[in-house]
Amino acid sequence: MEKRNGKNIIGKIIKGFSLLIIDRYIIRKFLSTFFFSIILIMSIAVVLDFSEKIDDFLESNAPLNKIIFEYYLNFIPYFASLFSHLFTFIAVIYFTSRMAYNTEFIAILSNGVSFNRILYPYFISALIITLFSFTLNNFVIPHATAKKQTFEEQYYHRSPRVYSDRNIHKQISPGVFIYLENYNTYNNSGRLFSMEKYEKGELVSKLMSKEVHWDSTTNKWKIRDYMIRNFDGENQTIITGRSIDTTMNISPEEFRRRDNAIEAMNLPELNQFIRRQKMQGASNLNEILIEKHKRFSFPFSTFILTLIGVSVSSKKVKGGIGMQIGIGLLISFSYILFLQFSSQFAISGALSPFVAAWIPNVLFLIIAIFLYRMAPK
Prior knowledge:
18% strand
């Protein structure tokens, strides 16, 4: 008897989550419209970008196969993910408003299917798009961006990556701090270098030199005209010399890194980079943390924007489909604008990066719930 009741319960659960014909219809329409929008908009974006950069490609003698496979093949995933919210809105509003215009929603609701049940295939589609977006943002796009940036440096920017900061302070390992007045990326050398080592909050050693230079043959830093002061309580010893080789937990690549280098890091690399930057006391840590949190909040927003899209477009209005698409585009661009706006607050330190990345989702979730309650039931 207990086994039979258990089977009945499992059967009801499976039946409750089984796909109906209308579910498959909505999922097929949602995803096909979404990916068709991506292909259409990306085709236009590629044509516009090529027309803008063709002179640079010709001037730098960029090979056609590299333009296609190293630049544009890696250009498409980045912009597809960047405008995925817009594509989601277009997909949801376009085919849902057509269903409403053709009174299909009225027929579905009048046959006893609740509005909540209609949302089921929408959220299945949103889950697929969310997983697609999350995978792109964290594992596919970083690799593609790295290739695109390499191509741009060779054939578009045609200039080496320059580190322009002065008075550089970094913690390269626990208790070890370095200072550079400036660093030259052309010859991998820095002026007025010092390195301090602390143990239990007490300064135990300080190295000062006029110049530090990276030796690519030995993969070590060569320190010239140096003086080392070792402290032992009230006693100290001084060591001087013309040149000494040392290994430090920092490489020349960190000085050449462009501002958008974090876009070329996958999730494990980004987490490792954040740990390193925290240790070094980086001034732009908030900007890096925003990038990490946006990689989670961006895909999740697909559910919220899908709910808004269905709620807005499921009702037949006098303005027709054009009016509903216009409302959807306005909300979509408002979301992107608000996300950028909150990110600037986090960079300035007024908001935490986590709050800055997720507050647009919270705000638009409230809007989504309000529109959902206003939708026809």
